[in-house]
Amino acid sequence: MKKILAIETSCDETAIALLQTNQIVFGQLEQYEIEVLGEATRSQIDTHAPYGGVFPTLAKREHAQYIVALTDEVFRQTKITYESHAPIDEYTKNYISHSCQKNENLLSPAMEFLSREQKPIIDYIVVTVGPGLAPALWVGVMWAKMLSQRYQIPIIPANHMIGHLYAALLSDTNSENKFSLTIPTEKFITLLVSGGHTEIILTDIQKNMHKKIGHTLDDAAGEAYDKVARMLALPYPGGPQISRLANTAREKFLSPVQFPRPLYNDSTFNFSFSGLKTAVQYYLRDTYSKSTPIPFEDTLRIALGFEDALIDCLIHKTEKAIITHSPSALACGGGVSANTTLRERLHHLAKKHTIPLHIPKIVHSTDNAIMIALTAVVGNPEPVSLENISAIPSVSL
Ligand code: KG4
Ligand code: ZN
């Protein structure tokens, strides 16, 4: 049994979770029982919406403002046990002050929290070190280090995208806060589709291997959704908005506007969505005058045409990867995996190739801290010393 505190601040969600995990081995099958003891998440969507995307310095400020309160909330929700602990010493106080130098609004809640003379019984702190926005990542990393320094709890750095990958492998049990995590014993393929990344990963857990076999050459899928939404004057984040309009267009049997499918016929597993986004931009420029609003039905047809083109590319390259690598399973994770049409089409694809599909439930598709904790569950990663932990905004797999 391991108790893991997970911290996620890579983008616009401040998320904390406390998990208890237990490994069960059935023959070759690697399976874990995951109990979520507490979870607290605060979304910054309303803060960033007026900018049409995430504004890094605002993200940092809000993470710093709420991270301690969210941690406190998680501790209060759980049956966590404490042991009495020595009063905070001068070295730790200085460590906290120094850590909060660039985050003034973190200093006083952090000092107050860490001055309590009780130590939570936790085995590991897992924190997202990347990929993500540097100022945002640093808040989580500094908070993890302060907790670790005060309570002497080891830190395991987490890769956000690996978190999305493991979130796909979680399945429900008949208890609301318990899940099971089953790792395919043979190699499997994951389509990772988020706001910052779009990748196809070939994983072989036995060999501890996550190999990126395809990636976007420019915009990520979620980023393309967000940018096209902005062109259509829809609020951030654009994915759910465009998806809702495209679904309405399907219900009304409207014909989609035809947009290109970049890199569809090339020999790689790569994607390119910048050209698709520009095609939407040119279509709007050439079809409508700036002074008149776009008729609603046209907006529906544009959303449908864009989504069809983007999802066709995702499905086609994923199928190509399945044909080439004959994986034992298909998985999909990241914010865009919440998309209903993508989910349906992946189900068909997996069925066609007679392999299981692993996809997170909607709440675990977008950023959360449970997925970050999972990265420390599989493969027994080693803790890293405090001085060797830093945010790595463009970390790869
Ligand atoms: O993984 P995520 O929560 O954050 C990052 O790691 O980037 O992904 C956020 C992205 C955003 O671009 C958002 O527009 C997109 O996921 N997204 C969707 C849907 N829900 C969220 N895209 C398409 N359809 C959705 N239903
Ligand atoms: Zn994400």
Can you walk me through this structure?
- This protein folds into 2 domains: 2-165 and 366-388, Nucleotidyltransferase, domain 5 (2-Layer Sandwich), CATH 3.30.420.40; 186-355, Nucleotidyltransferase, domain 5 (2-Layer Sandwich), CATH 3.30.420.40.
- The strands form 3 sheets. A 7-stranded mixed β-sheet has the order 7-6-1-2-3-9-8, sandwiched between helices.
- A hairpin with a 4-residue loop joins strand 1 (2-8) and strand 2 (13-26).
- It is built from 13 helices and 14 strands.
- Helix content is 41%, strand content 22%.
- With 397 residues, the chain is α/β, with parallel strands linked by helices.
- The structure holds 5'-O-[(R)-(carboxyoxy)(hydroxy)phosphoryl]adenosine (KG4) and zinc ion (ZN).
- Zinc ion is lined by residues 160, 164, 194, 334-335, 367.
